[in-house]
Amino acid sequence: MTPPSSVLYMVMTPPYSVLYNVMTPPSSVLYHVMAPPFSVFTNVLYIDKVKVEEKRVSLPRHGVKMPRYPWSDGPEYITQCAIKQGGKFSQKVIFSAEEGTLWWHAHSDWSRATVHGAIIVYPKHGTVYPFPRPYAEVPIVLGEWWKQDVMKVLEEFVRIGGTPNDSDAFAINGQPGTFKLTVEHGKTYLLRIINAAMNEILFLAIAKHKLTVVGTDASYTKPLKAKYITISPGQTIDALFHANCHHGRYYIAARAYSAGNVPFDNTTTTAIIQYAGKKSTATSPPLFPHLSYRNDTRAKVNFTGSLRSLGSKNHPINVPLKITTPMISTVSLNTLPCHPNRTCLGPNGTRLAASMNNLSWVNPSIDILQAYYYHIKGVFGDRFPNFPPYVFNFTADYFPMELEIPKKTRQVKILKYNSTVEVVFQGTNLVAGINHPMHLHGHSFYVVGWGFGNHDKFRDPLTYNLVDPPLLNIVDVPRNGWITIRFKASNPG
């Protein structure tokens, strides 16, 4: 289930081959605008005259920090207004510490569901991968497919206020079951895996083969051998795959993980690994991998909890130890009253909403960064609370109805330059406990701790990993649980 937008916005004092024809997918057709991967070998890249054919849209580079240049970071009404239909837009993209796999996507409404592609950032000249060089590299983009125009799905969702229609299938590289990867026996391949699904955490495995995770969100990790991976929406994972099995055909399979009693796409998508050579046969059916059950929370957290930053001379770990700005924010599913003269299908005739610290975001008429830079008053406030305004048993089974209704507002958090920030994201069971993906633009962050239930400010910090926590740009808060992240606010924007 894709919850309504609820966002904390922080305001602070390889050949690049691209196809950018942004179109609304026609009804009942699988239509992905997926470009060849952006392959980057340089620090600054200019994309000249992005042209939008249909629908307004903005086009961020997910996970690219864009140091000192936030003006085209992408989030609509935050760092820029959308590119108008028929308009053109020139972009400057600045790369810094990123190395590995990222992606780009549309950032207006649900357009990113079908408008996206890979970004591959290679090691700097004179340096090498911190693992044996693979024989080949293959982007694996996990996406969703609707039998109707996904924008119509969104419009209906907003109109009725209930849960949106789930996708009809998942897809691998834009194909719901027909993508094929031919490999040579004995060779090692680097799979650059991207979860472009709207809001689904996915399990992925390859029959009879193990994966060795070596990076996530364009940051290297200690090698992690695994029979499967769990990948959050918007996350990227780099994994080595050694083609060391008997000649034949093997399925790559992916399906959703879902905790709680909420609707989700329960289909399984596949692709085929085909061994090259005379011994290979297309007559025998491909072998299918063991995939974790859809509600297997233990399998999900066993994988994500095992990720560790590499920590080498060329890729050091810099976890902030002295925190100057501590924050705790609840993340909740909420309800709002139905519009007059309408019938809404949310709980008890309401509309679904979402909030952080009981505040639900309302888009302005101009972008926040412009208003901040030019001192335009009345566009946003600077009183996003550091702590929840209401303290209660966040993961209880029953709540007073008034706790479910958030305040609609545009409050932001102002951070001092070079401040060290710790944020505890606390999931709640309001309306329905779900996993909440959290993404931060302009920064990566260390995930130093996580757990289930209510965060304990005295007990839980004693369990934090301050030695080699994973460095990510997106993380999901577990259902009725919490995540603690740390980062240095060193990129004004």
What does this structure look like?
With 493 residues, the protein is mostly beta strands. The strands form 8 sheets. The chain has a 6-stranded mixed sheet, with no helix packed on it. Strands 20-19-24-29-26-27 form a 6-stranded mixed sheet, with no helix packed on it. It has a domain at 325-489: Cupredoxins -  blue copper proteins (Immunoglobulin-like). The model is unreliable at 1-35 (pLDDT under 50). 5% of the residues lie in helices and 35% in strands. GO terms for molecular function: copper ion binding; hydroquinone:oxygen oxidoreductase activity.
Helix/strand-derived class?
mainly beta
**CATH domain class name of the domain at 325-489:** Mainly Beta
CATH 2nd-level architecture of the domain at 325-489: Sandwich
Largest sheet: 6 strands, mixed
Strand order of the largest sheet: 9-8-11-16-13-14
Summarize the structure.
This protein has 493 residues and is mainly beta. The protein has helices at 150-160, 297-304, 368-373, and strands spanning 10-12, 38-40, 44-51, 61-62, 88-94, 100-105, 116-121, 136-145, 169-172, 180-183, 188-195, 201-206, 211-216, 219-226, 229-231, 236-242, 249-257, 268-275, 325-336, 351-356, 359-361, 407-409, 413-415, 419-427, 436-439, 445-452, 471-472, 474-477, 481-489.
How are the secondary structure elements laid out?
Elements: E1 10-12, E2 38-40, E3 44-51, E4 61-62, E5 88-94, E6 100-105, E7 116-121, E8 136-145, H1 150-160, E9 169-172, E10 180-183, E11 188-195, E12 201-206, E13 211-216, E14 219-226, E15 229-231, E16 236-242, E17 249-257, E18 268-275, H2 297-304, E19 325-336, E20 351-356, E21 359-361, H3 368-373, E22 407-409, E23 413-415, E24 419-427, E25 436-439, E26 445-452, E27 471-472, E28 474-477, E29 481-489
Parallel strand pairs: 1-23, 2-7, 8-11, 10-18, 19-24, 21-22
Antiparallel strand pairs: 3-5, 4-6, 6-7, 8-9, 11-16, 12-15, 12-17, 13-14, 13-16, 17-18, 19-20, 24-29, 25-28, 26-27, 26-29
